[in-house]
Write a structure and sequence with these properties.
Layout (H helix, E strand, L loop, with lengths): L4 H14 L6 H15 L3 H18 L2 H17 L5 H13 L3 H17 L3 H17 L3 H17 L3 H7 L1
Helix pairs in contact: 1-2, 2-3, 2-4, 3-4, 4-5, 4-6, 5-6, 6-7, 6-8, 7-8, 8-9
Length: 168
């Protein structure tokens, strides 16, 4: 996480090792993660990897995997200023439907982050508050911390300094 070139090299190597094994959840997750990295330099290649990973998730009937792939697709859409909300809602719904807590926590965190980054505070409010509750109930501290941090930033943007300070 957050190691740039090291992360890309590890993702690429994992895909090389998993390819001979055929379609499987680990390969699909690797493709989805690498596709997100690839998206910035080669959107067409990134999109093809995401499509392949999504097909694997569907063929395998793995909804937590589908959530991961859709979450990455929504992130790429967000970064390229495309409509991302429907894709992210599908990612969250898929995760919640099979009690995939890490995927749901990530979907809540990314959705809230994206809404607040676009100053769409009212639309994002439920993702932030529901996400914090969800993550706290399941002890998913990485995403609850992200949600609280973005909540504090959103409250600062709204001029609600005392509330932002209390969260921070």
């Amino acid at each position: 996480l957050c190691r740039g070139a090291e992360e890309r090299a590890a993702l690429k190597r994992s895909i090389e090792l998993l390819e001979p094994l055929g379609d499987n959840p680990a390969l699909a997750r690797g493709l989805a993660a690498y596709a997100f990295e690839e998206w910035a330099s080669d959107p067409a290649a990134g999109l093809a990897m995401l499509a392949r990973a999504e097909k694997m998730a569907d063929d395998l009937g793995d909804q937590s995997l589908r959530s991961d792939v859709l979450n990455n697709r929504a992130a790429a859409q967000f970064l390229t200023h495309e409509e991302w909300t429907e894709t992210m809602d599908l990612a969250l719904t898929a995760a919640l439907g099979v009690n995939a807590s890490p995927q749901a926590g990530r979907a809540y965190a990314n959705a809230y982050t994206f809404y607040t980054a676009r100053f769409r505070f009212a639309e994002g409010e439920r993702y932030g508050l529901d996400g914090i509750d969800y993550c706290d109930e399941r002890d998913i501290t990485t995403f609850s911390t992200c949600l609280r941090g973005h909540r504090a930033i959103a409250l600062l943007d709204l001029g609600r300094w005392d509330e932002a300070t209390a969260i921070a």
